[in-house]
Amino acid sequence: MAGPLPLGDPAPADGRLPADLRIDPDAAFSAYLHVPFCRVRCGYCDFNTYTASELRGARQDAYADTLIQEIALAREVLAERGPLRPLSTVFFGGGTPTLLPAGDLGRMLGAAIDAFGIADGAEVTVEANPDTVTPEVAEELAAAGVTRMSIGMQSAVPHVLAALDRTHRPENVRTAVEAARAAGLAVSVDLIYGAPGESLEDWRSSLTTAIGLDPDHISAYALIIEDGTKLARQIRRGEVPAPDDDLQADMYELADGLLGEAGFDWYEVSNWARRPAAHGGADQRSRHNMAYWRGTDWWGFGPGAHSHVGGLRWWNVKHPAAYAQRLAAGESPAAATERPDAEAAQLERILLRSRMAEGMPLDAIAADARTRVAGLIADGLVDPGAALRGMLVLTLRGRLLADAVVRALTD
Questions:
Q1: Could you give phi then psi for residue 283, rounded to 5 degrees?
Q2: pLDDT tens, 116-147?
Q3: Axis-axis angle for helices 102-116, 63-79 (nearest 10)
Q4: For the chain, what is the total number of helices (H) and then of strands (E)?
Q5: For residue 28, which phi and psi values (nearest 5 degrees)?
Q6: CA–CA dist 81, 146 (Å, integer)
Q7: Span 159-178, pLDDT tens digits
Q8: Residue 113, C-beta contacts closer than 8 angstroms, at least 6 positions apart
Q9: Cis omega before residue 295 (within 30°)?
Q10: Dist. CA 183–CA 149, nearest whole Å
Q11: Angle 410-249-385 (CA atoms, 0-180°, nearest 5)?
């Protein structure tokens, strides 16, 4: 399970927002629906997820009805503060959302749409384990309003999947992609690189396999060792090697090269989308994730889910049983809230916006920090042409050293 929730101010039991909170009625609004169930726990994962033996009284078959109660609460709370905004994106994350029946996911989506409405052309994504996707599931999700499926491929190499404790067979990824495509869904595949025992050639094999699936979008994340995970314990005991930073850098450069050659453009450090010309002009970037990176408003539904509205953040109690108990008692499931001060908000803005290919305006950076941009250009970390246009955009080397760029601009 994930580590402890962050500290914050007490959240009101009724879920009401502070009276002085200013909400932009024209800002985009998104919903994240967390499904915290997994069949097995992957050794690297520190997400707020639970296997059947960890539910301790929470009922997976009652989960959809419980989350719908939070949707009703959110509508009531937000309706008090002005006109409700239609959902521009919806994202089912986990855990493994497709462990629930497709009908349950459809009911949750329907409740969110009934509560807030949905914008024309809205993006609705469901994360899925390849083993849980059948043609029937994909068709039912599409009929419910889902537009996009994000499939957890992770690797095409059996020993790498085993090192990550992934249980699906590589060939099941293609089956899942074909089912999603047949149902009319856009398709993203997620990859992880730097697993114990993974070579550069293993990674090349995964990349070429993923490209061969002809998805609309590919995410590629470097393996990060999180405290408290099985993998962290294995590394501490010397049972498996820690990730090699130099090898991970080589893997990233290989990914960027192969994906670029195959018609994908990077738009965030770990994300590539098909060039619009390849798909009739459609923008295949994850609009939901872009909402996070741009700092717009979203409500996170489900245990442990985080929300952000008008600069206020809050997060729900972690365990599904505690989450259900709060809502059954007519109370908000929020555990705590925070309002980042100007310095913290600026740090987050630079951290997120600088990772995007669109970059961030130089005039959004503090004046004293802007004087360091010339040095970042000289070090090959920032694109000089973009800087002349008033934007800070990372080079390939800058993407590999993105944290160093953020430190230079915020220290």
A1: -85, 115
A2: 999 999 999 999 999 999 999 999 999 999 99
A3: 10
A4: 16, 15
A5: -65, 150
A6: 29
A7: 999 999 998 889 999 999 99
A8: 87, 145
A9: no
A10: 10
A11: 55
